[in-house]
């Protein structure tokens, strides 16, 4: 089946059309990119790594971005010795690279 997908992408491109996929984004939106047959092969072989590379982060960072619902958390600690669960401002990041730059690095309004 993987070869069939790659062949189909190649045939579509040879016919003069483009194959476009949507990458994950905030609230169901996302950016679209055109892919080649080689991209389709990489996507089929390791979807998480391919998507992460297109978004400019690692697969683990994409997972964290999605796990925290795209909301970077505070770098502070509570008096009880737990990580602060509050979000940093703004509350949501469409760009996972921006999320990574702020998650557990910046502080919420209480710790800031």
Structure notes:
The protein is built from five helices and two strands, in the order αββαααα. With 112 residues, the protein is mainly alpha-helical. It is elongated, with a radius of gyration of 18 Å.
Radius of gyration: 18 Å
Structural class: mainly alpha
Quaternary form: single chain
- Sequence of secondary-structure elements: HEEHHHH
Cα distance spanning the termini: 52 Å
Q: Helix tally?
A: 5
| Biggest sheet overview | 2 strands, antiparallel
Write the layout of secondary structure elements.
Blueprint: H1 2-14, E1 19-22, E2 32-35, H2 37-45, H3 47-55, H4 59-67, H5 96-102
Antiparallel strand pairs: 1-2
Helix pairs in contact: 1-2, 2-3, 3-4
Short description:
The protein has helices at 2-14, 37-45, 47-55, 59-67, 96-102; strands spanning 19-22, 32-35. It has 112 residues and is mainly α.
